[in-house]
Amino acid sequence: MKSRVPTFIIGFCIPMAAILLCFPIYNRIEPFVFGLSFNYFWIFSWLFLTSFCLFIAYKLDPYNTPENDAAAKEILKKVKEENAAVMAQASKGGGK
Amino acid sequence: MALVIFIAILALSVVIAILSKKGAIGSSMDDVMTASGSFGAFLIFFVSVGEIYSIGTMIGTPGSIYAKGATYGVWFICYILLAYVIGYFMNPAIWRMGQLAKAVSIGDVIGWRYNSKGLQVIVALVAIFFLTPWIQNQYAGMAILFEYLNIGVIFYAAVLISSALAFLYIAIAGIRAPAWVSVLKDVLLITAIVVVGVAAAVNMPGGVSGIFHTVAENNPEMLVIPTKPITAHVTYTMSTILFQMLGFYMLPISFQALLTSKNEHNLRRNSIFMPLYMIMFPFLVVAAYYAVATIPSLEKADYALLSVAVNTLPEWVIGLVAGGGALTAILVMSISALCVGGLFSKNILGVIRPDMTQKSMASWVRIVTAVFLIFGMLAALYFPAMMANVVSLAYSGLAQTFVAVIFGFFWKRATKWGIGAGIISGVIAVAIIKNAMAIPPLGMAFGFWAMIVNVIVTVIVSLLTKPDEETIRRLELFKAAKPVKSIK
After folding, report:
1. What's the rounded Cα separation, in Å, for the pair B110 and B398?
2. Under 8 Å between Cβ of B238 and A23
3. Which residue of A91, B209, B217, B439 is most buried, as measured by CB atoms within 10 A?
């Protein structure tokens, strides 16, 4: 089984750390970068960097292969059918 | 000239709404509310962003920065950005549970998972109650737009026209019409914001750098979040970001948008593009600080963006800004009202009268949609409030359902009694802290406290009661539907 841990670290932990944990570091005016105060420079950069992190996470994510899409569809269909069968049984038995 | 462009934009939106009806399957409940789950990645993207970036984004963000400084800029941008990060991992699971529950709303999903009609009603009531300020916010935004721009439409006429249009979209093609119109709305909204932001930078000696240096010199307290006194700003900002990023997808409209997806894969892929869509925020921030630097004494802080537009742009562009802003407000009203219509008809009326047909339920949706629009309109005319506060109130209440959804994914012991008590105590905590305390304890956002109360009550009451067999079976079912990773 391929692990989802790298996906989680890159797609979740890194953006969270950069924006929440690093707050005391980036909450400052200087140095100015590209004319922006440092806090806004940092946050604006993370608009793009978060997207990039999610892109890498998406690529690493074992859920996103075509085989997995097909399998996921199958599983969901099967579970829905099982559920329908149970529900039909229950309503026959006089329950809800 | 501005008026002509404004009218043209609204007319175009109606044409799109009519065209969107083509290919509609019918007027059943599923079709009206979620287009029977038939939207591909493209439309899901626009439906989701269509609701989030409302006129509050356009007017409220710069307005709040102008009034209160960086706290609001940082808060707005960060919570949405981090919500997308959470969404990548959480949304597919919500969608899957929605599939099993055959859900069209957040009430359906939570009600199904805990096997409780009562819970379904509670969630629907909470959602409707807290969507009212959301829709009111759209009218308040329009009021500011028409008051300030003065393009030849009086506010009352604008309110009536927009309510009529918002209803017209729904009446024409259910969710399909606002979904397609939201493409036009997003193009206009972003264009308008970018144009104003660029105009601000071009008009300032030294460009963006000039704007930020001027503010840093004259009003440095507007540019960073003050660290002293610590309770007043940093903890408030952080706690607000924390609970709003959790509550983001619990907004009934965002939640409903997830359910319109065809599969899980599209939801994950969309998450990559969501942060890029936030590219409008830098332009809003630049415009806001341009206003701070050059237009120091505005009558109302919410005029900030519009005053920049009026000071720097030709008249026809003002028409574009007015049209984009108004269309944004109309669209968000339309989708919110439809959402309330669905919640009320299916999750409240449907429970009271279980024998109701799909067809009459779908007509109830339209009736409630209209009533709710009128209600929001009256609320806006008689109880205006500062926009950012309205949003934060709406979030504090809506975010309470997050606990129910997350426990729903994995906690076997969670019972309907626990979840119900948790949501109710969370909402009561919002009301108490918001009204009875001037400063919330430790300076943390009141919604954050409410969520803590919610979790504690949910856990205690759940442990004291027993989940019924059906509730456990549904959790097992959900777990069984989880795709396995071991294909290769």
Report:
1. 13
2. yes
3. B209
